[in-house]
Structures are given as structure tokens and as C-alpha cells.
Amino acid sequence: MKRVLLLGGLDPSGGAGITLDATVVALHGLRPLPVAVVATVQNRRGFQSFAPVPAWRQALAAVLDDGPVHAIKVGLLGDGALACEVADALQPLRASVPFVVDPVLSATTGGFAPREPLLAAYRERLAPLASLLTPNGPELAALFDGDVQRALRSGAGAVLHKGGHHDGPFADDVLCTAAGATSFRRERLPVGPVRGTGCALAAAIAARLALGENLALACRGAGEWLAAMLRTLGPAAADGVPRTLPLATALCG
Fold first, then answer.
1. 180-187 and 170-177: which strand pairing?
2. Are 47 and 112 in contact (CB under 8 A)?
3. Which domain holds residue 53?
4. Three-point CA angle 161, 163, 168, nearest 5°
5. % of the chain residues with pLDDT over 70
6. Number of independent structural domains in the chain
């Protein structure tokens, strides 16, 4: 069975981070390898705090000692020092394994505000390792002043500029590489705020890359898979509280 390494934050409410990533990878028929770098205190009503997990390096070593990995996905890392340590630990794998970096700089529920050292670490240490960087609009603005070409010049192999935070009847995810750009257009759904969509998309892409799909096909397929899940939610919740993805109803295509 193909194995996907997942590093990021542990969400006790199950709606985001490696908790969600592991479910997404399993739904794609692969074995998830979740390594918690930080433990978070959060739920659907807010992000309260995070703390480093002291044994994450030992956990990573144990996972790598157990067999090969076929893709890597990195998400929430909390602070710049931890992000640099993760980059150092994963550097030896970059040449042989597809590496998806989801630069988590906020929480859908609010309450997480990263400092400049974390931005610098994503920009200078993790982006150069990434086969694919998956920023939304605000993240691309914070990291690279909204300039995809600058992100590519940082060393990222490709950038998927997600369109969920923009306005209009359609959400366009744009895959940019040195060879050009490919747009994936989907109808914008009136589902309101939903937690974990960025985590789920990046994890689904990593799973599909592990299965041997090329980058464009993986991005397209993962986006369509996520959109199908969102359609099952129906209209936005009246109370405005973010919802979680209906993974129990998800089918992988």
C-alpha cells in the first residue's frame, strides 16, 4: 500500500490538520502517516492555542524506519523555528518524493495569527522544497505579495493559487509552473464557511501524486473530489458557525 507522510497540527475536533489529512488519504485508498508537529486547541468556534509536540522528530524517524513514503504533505507548523526544523528533517526526501506544502497562515474560525518568522520559513525554507505550493489568495499575498512568479522563483516546482477566497460566481484554482498556467474552474457553492478545505485539498493532491498521477491531473481530480463533498452540505448554516467536511459521505473518483 502506498504511504503518504503528513506533518502538521493535531486538531482535537477532527475538522482540520493531520486529523483530517489522515482521513482524506485513507479515503483515497492509501496509508496515512500522520506526524503531529504541534498540538492545537481548537474547534468549530475558534482556534485558541498551539504547542510544539516534543517527540515529533522521533515519530518521524520511526515512520521513515518502517518503510518508504510515496508523497509528503506539510501543513500547519505554528512558528518559524519549528518550520525550519521540519524543512531540515525533510530535505533528504525532496529529490525522490512529491512534496506538497500547504502554507497555513490562518484558521477558518479565526484566532491564529502567524508572525513574520513563520512567513519567512515558508517562503525561504519550505517553498524551495515544494513540488507544489498551495496558497489561497491571502496566503499568496502574505508570502509573495500576491505574485505567483515570485513564488516560483523562490524554488517551488509549481504553485496552485486557490480561488476560494475571491469573489464571483466561479472559483478558479490556477496551477502555475515554469511552462505556463492551467485553470480549473468550478461553480462557487453557497455553503458558507467550511473548516479544513485547504487541508483536504492538499492531502488529496498528495494522495493522487503518490498513486502516480501527474500534477495537473492530481490537482484537477482533488478539486473535483472536494467540490463533490461540498455540494452535499447544502446552503450555509444559519448560525454562521463554520461547518466540517462530510467525509463520511465522500467517495473517491
1. antiparallel
2. yes
3. 3-249
4. 150
5. 93
6. 1
